[in-house]
Amino acid sequence: MFHLKGVHHIALNCSDVVKTARFFKEILEVPIPEESIVEGEPVYFQIGTNTRLGLHPHGGEPGKGGVGMVDHIAFSVTSRAELDYLVDKLEAGNIRYRGPIAKPESFSLYFETPDGHQLEVRLDKDEFDDFDE
Asked: Which parts of the chain fold into alpha helices (H)?
């Protein structure tokens, strides 16, 4: 069994990440460090206590999966055992997935809803999480 502890982040596809990050920073007064706004790189920032947004570079046209669309929703879990449990459930349901992929800061598991919404279940590697490679 596993327990989703919340939405990790919502990723937005952007034609110009720098312009969009500055919109959030200047218009909505989101405290985004200037050094984290880099051309061609995703920008992640916190809004409030529990909400993160990720701005992802995307060169496509507006529409499904393109600019102006949500790329994916990432949920957080608290242990590697929960990721492994979810892998077992996905396999039992014959649902295609990728991962868990080990990254420097996390383990990420990717799959889709029946309607094609992209989901990520992520275990951050920090002092509060139980993780093993």
From this structure: 17-26, 80-92
Q: Is the pLDDT of residue 131 over 70?
A: no
Sheet bearing 70-76, strands edge to edge? 43-47, 51-57, 6-14, 70-76, 118-124, 106-112, 97-102
> 21, exposed or middle or buried, with CB in 10 Å at 0-12, 13-18, 19+?
buried
Phi, psi dihedral angles at 25 (to 5 degrees):
-70, -45
Q: Which tens digit of pLDDT belongs to each residue from 53-90? A: 888 887 665 555 666 677 788 888 888 898 999 899 88
Q: Which residue has the higher pLDDT, 50 or 42?
A: 42
* d(C-alpha 102, C-alpha 14), whole Å: 26
Sign (positive/negative) of CA torsion 122, 125, 127, 131?
A: positive
Q: Rounded distance, CA 127 to CA 115, Å?
A: 36
CA distance 47 to 73: 15
Task: List, in sequence order, the alpha helices (H) in 93-127.
Answer: none
DSSP bridge pairs for 108: 101, 122
pLDDT at 126 exceeding the cut of 90: no
